[in-house]
Amino acid sequence: MPQTDPAAAPPWVVAPTEERNPDTVGIDLAATLDMLRMINDEDAKVAGAVRAALPALAEAVDLAAEALRGGHRIHYFGAGTSGRIALMDAAELIPTYGTDPSQVVAHHAGGTEAVGRPIENLEDDEAGGAADAAGLQPGDVAVGLTASGRTPYVIGALRAARARQARTILMSANPTASFGTEADVHVGVATGPEVIAGSTRMKAGTAQKMLLNAFSTALMVRTGHTFSNLMVAVGARNTKLRGRVVRILVEATGLDPRVCAEAAERAGGDGRVALVSLLAEVSVDAARHALTESGGAVRQALVVAGRTS
Q1: pLDDT, the chain, mean
Q2: CA 280, 281, 285: angle at the middle one, nearest 5?
Q3: Whose CA is closest to 107, among 139, 130, 140, 137?
Q4: Average pLDDT in the 114-121 region?
């Protein structure tokens, strides 16, 4: 594993998240309620910092949506807290939006072994990041998550991705990170010093979760995985989800729940197929064909199926 050259960098991490927070220097002397107020006061700053970075995040979403529409894949790369947030975000897209598991893939430094048992030195392995990015293809998108903006594992992955003609996005809590200029898009959120200096699972982690939630949700909307604000691509794979599909169909169509339940059953639990069938008043087979022709986007499928309003 490569070692840091002491002549090339100071023997400490230079990043906003590593600075000491002047508002919490007395936290260890505070009463419990006052301590929690300090933490909450810092947490309240995160949403505003994320809002300031939305223009860059919009660029990232549009870049990724173009890739998905072109049949390419999105890859997340992160270490520690960043990697765990990435894994959670990618995993939850599958049941929520009916995505294929290969469409959005998360890579954590050290793999699954390092998810539940931290192996801290793996984030310094630039070659490991490059190896994890070896499967990317031209047109794919690599999203690197790092609080400091300088994590070697993430940098290695993004550099390898670019060498494979993939597009690159960096999400960090360091707007001035030098590597940001190498990425196609740098979404840098100024979360500032943590409550406990360097504890980036806190504000920086919260910002990264907000960024990825917004990024992947907007990506799903842009690629037709919703109808209005309804997650119509959810599959009816258990009792709760079967009920959710019916409720979504009722909300989207205004039809009787029994009619919607029957449509869902005819569609094999596929909410999009059932919805197109109901709204366009066509058979399940015709609805499925329209969705195939439209790449799975409901609004376009309704046009294909002949609904004009």
Answers
A1: 91
A2: 90
A3: 130
A4: 73
Pairwise CA distance, residues 131 & 160, whole Å: 8
Backbone angles phi, psi at 293, to 5 degrees: -65, -30
- Give the residue among 149, 184, 152 at the shortest CA–CA distance from 169: 184
Rg (CA), the chain: 22
Q: What are phi and psi of 74, to 5 degrees?
A: -110, 130
Checking if the pLDDT of 6 tops 60, the result is no
Which residues 6+ apart lie within 8 Å of 77 measured at CB?
Answer: 83, 86, 107, 129, 132, 133, 142, 143, 144, 145, 153, 154, 157, 158
Query: In one letter, which amino acid is 218?
Result: A
Cα 248 from Cα 246, distance rounded (Å): 5
Q: Identify the three-state secondary structure at position 30.
A: coil
CB–CB of 308/301 below 8 Å?
no
Q: Which residue has the tokens 């599959």?
A: 235
- Active-site amino acid positions: 92, 123
User: Which pair of tokens denotes residue 186?
Assistant: 């740098």
Cβ atoms of 203 and 192 within 8 Å: the answer is yes
Report whether pLDDT(5) > 70: no
Cα separation of 182 and 79, whole Å? Answer: 19
Distance CA 43, CA 209 (A): 13
User: Angle at Cα 205 formed by Cα 50 and Cα 29, nearest 5°?
Assistant: 105
* Residues composing the chain: 309
